[in-house]
Amino acid sequence: MIETSLHAVGVVGRPIEHSLSPLLHRAAFQELGLAWTSAAIDAGEGDAQRIVELMRVEGFRGLSVTMPLKIEIAKIVDDLDESASDLGSVNCVTNNGGHLTGSSTDGDGFLAAIEHQTGFRPHGARAVLAGSGGAARSIISALSRHGVSDVAVIARSTLAVDELLGLAGGRGRHGTASDVHEADLVIDTTPFGMAGADPAFSTPLIAPSLTHSGQIVADLVYVPRETHWLEECRLQGAEIVGGLGMLVHQAALALEIWTGQSAPVAAMWSAADDAAGRS
């Protein structure tokens, strides 16, 4: 049984049993001295209406939304913030007296993690983005909003790249491996290197040998904490960033929406580090 009130939040999706979101939420609430709770809720395709009704009836203040419900829920909440409207998907829903607003904190969370770990800011920078899925959509949109000068997109599908470029605000283009050399930031959004990844992602879109010192190279995978691909990029001299930070910082941004308080990022990082060390 889930104890619910406007001091309850959660994460919804499938699979959900290994989600770190409730752990991050609880660490933040403890640090802030809030008597709030967080739950993991199993829900799959076709369950969006049930989840929206659950939020209103049971009084959840907010929910983090993961696959496969990001697009489905975006279609039926009362309104969307600018980033979620651009993407047509949400990873965060906020309940304001029964009025549900969808947000997307993934892209901004990624950039906040990069800045937190390296000091990098995207304004005027050149980026190479590998992949064309939901995470790539969030990140290219955030890069555009934060003033990146150029985003070269490398993916297996030309049509998928075309769709991504529509979110780039005129700053994106089809990329090739040759673009990596001039990039300030290189991002792999594919599942390559992830434990149990689809065999279709058995080779990287960007060879580590193309990266070099002076670059930041980011991988969204966080299990394992550091992929072999990242290790190889580090050997080339690049500054590397794993995927755990995006998880922490997108959750921090969601918590700030729900609570109206600055998220205790250090406490959330500590909880994430402890959990990653146990996995």
Automatic annotation (TrEMBL):
Residues in SDH C-terminal domain copies: 243-271
UniProt-recorded Gene Ontology molecular function terms: NADP binding; shikimate 3-dehydrogenase (NADP+) activity
UniProt-listed InterPro entries: Aminoacid_DH-like_N_sf, NAD(P)-bd_dom_sf, SDH_C, Shikimate_DH-bd_N, Shikimate_DH_fam
GO annotations of cellular component type: cytosol
Pfam family for this entry, one: Shikimate_dh_N
GO biological-process terms attached to the record: chorismate biosynthetic process; shikimate metabolic process
Every Shikimate dehydrogenase substrate binding N-terminal domain range: 11-93
Alphabetized HAMAP family for the sequence: Shikimate_DH_AroE (MF_00222)
Protein name per Swiss-Prot or TrEMBL: Unannotated protein
